[in-house]
Write a structure and sequence with these properties.
six-stranded mixed sheet, globular, 379 residues, single chain, 15 helices, binds adenosine-5'-diphosphate
Length: 379
């Protein structure tokens, strides 16, 4: 930074299993290894050893790494901007564990380990909720008794903010339209949509936790909350079981038995009617949010698809954009099938609303925000 040059990239997946996966790529090295990685600490140690390795590394010593940017999912009402990590900040992130139990404890552990392994580096926390701090009260509040908002901060926080911020900025630059009304559709394992007016988030589909809104890989998205009480009081479910079911066994998983959209698509192509219906339900939910956000913004310049599914599934994009002529959304179906690097326009020339596929880059956004913060503090 600030030239945004990528020296290396990689990941560690399936930590805790005998078949964990390590990937590390530089100009000269393309390493992919399946091995046992028991803990997050071990994973980070392997990465740090590779970075300074005399043959494969990109720096001489680990203390050459000056800044480490961390994605932290939930910043609550405490954090609205990238933040330099101190013991005080770590304690506040810990207080937010209950709001994002699947994410924040792991993010905290990442901070803790990075401090241990890279003690000279500045650690910066970039929050996935921060971009949505601009939501107006009418979109932020739930229609439940006021004291729950005032005393217990029960409200819409919103998530995937790092991705929505990056993608909406890219789209605005691409359209050369700082004054614009854009809907960002982030479809990965988690899925969400954001209504963005003039670069600012004004409404968002995830809520108090990353559970609301769209149909996801294993999360239900919107349901009538009475179902929870019916399951517990009438059908005898344990509350914990219901929570698990809604987060882990619902969504595409619950409808088809597959979490990964590639598997759902393959099954639908092979004539599985449940998978075909699940794809249609998924697209229908997205359509309804597009309609809602176009109404909320009183206009629409572009819809933008991003993340694993949004960038790769021409099938889901087609189902979403099918029959949206009334809203001025006209897809070029041939263009939609073509894969392109970078920003890809997939609307017809006469489409009033632009349809873009924009690859997200949360790592770059985190690097930018971390670098900016440390540069500012250093001045
Ligand atoms: P995360 O939310 O974990 O960052 P990603 O944005 O990487 O997830 O998205 C992962 C999901 O993208 C996978 O679970 C899969 O459903 C979907 N996906 C990836 N590649 C394709 C593809 N070629 N076609 C359809 N779906 C895909």
């Amino acid at each position: 930074m600030p030239s945004e040059e990528v020296l290396c990239k990689g990941l560690v997946e399936r930590i805790g299993s005998k078949e964990a996966f390590l990937q590390y790529k530089t100009d000269k090295v393309n390493l992919e290894e399946t091995l046992e990685i028991k803990t997050h600490k071990k994973g980070l140690q392997l990465i740090s050893a590779l970075l300074v390795d005399s043959e494969k590394g990109i720096v001489g010593e680990s203390n050459e790494i000056q800044i480490i940017g961390h994605r932290v999912v939930h910043g609550g009402t405490t954090f609205s901007a990238p933040t330099l990590v101190t013991p005080f900040v770590k304690d506040r992130i810990k207080e937010l564990f209950a709001l994002a139990p699947l994410h924040n404890p792991h993010n905290w552990e990442g901070l803790d380990l990075a401090e241990e392994i890279f003690p000279q580096a500045k650690q910066v926390a970039v929050f996935d909720t921060a971009f949505h701090q601009t939501l107006p009260l009418k979109a932020k509040k739930y229609a439940i008794p006021n004291h729950l908002f005032e005393e217990h901060k029960i409200q819409v926080y919103g998530f995937h903010g790092i991705s929505h911020q990056y993608v909406s900025k890219k789209s605005i630059d691409h359209l050369k339209k700082p004054k614009s009304k854009i809907i960002c559709i982030h479809l990965g394992n988690g899925c969400s949509m954001t209504a963005v007016v003039d670069g600012v988030s004004v409404d968002h589909s995830l809520g108090f936790t990353p559970a609301n809104g769209l149909i996801m890989g294993s999360r239900s998205g919107d349901i009538d909350h009475s179902i929870i009480f019916y399951l517990v009081e009438t059908l005898g479910y344990e509350l914990k079981e219901v929570n698990r079911m809604l987060l882990k066994d619902s969504g595409m998983m619950g409808l088809t038995g597959f979490n990964d959209l590639r598997d759902v698509q393959a099954a639908a192509e092979n004539g599985d009617l449940a998978s075909d219906l699940a794809l249609e339900m998924n697209a229908y939910r997205i359509k309804k949010y597009i309609g809602a956000y176009a109404a909320a913004m009183n206009g629409l310049d572009a819809i933008v698809f991003t993340a694993g599914i949004g960038e790769n599934s021409s099938e889901l994009r087609k189902r979403v954009c099918n029959g949206m002529d009334y809203l001025g959304i006209r897809m070029d179906e041939q263009e939609n099938e073509i894969r392109k690097e970078g920003i890809h326009e997939i609307h017809t020339p006469d489409s009033p609303v632009k349809i873009l596929v924009v690859p997200t880059n949360e790592e770059l956004e985190i690097a930018k925000q971390s670098f900016q913060l440390v540069s500012l503090i250093g001045q």
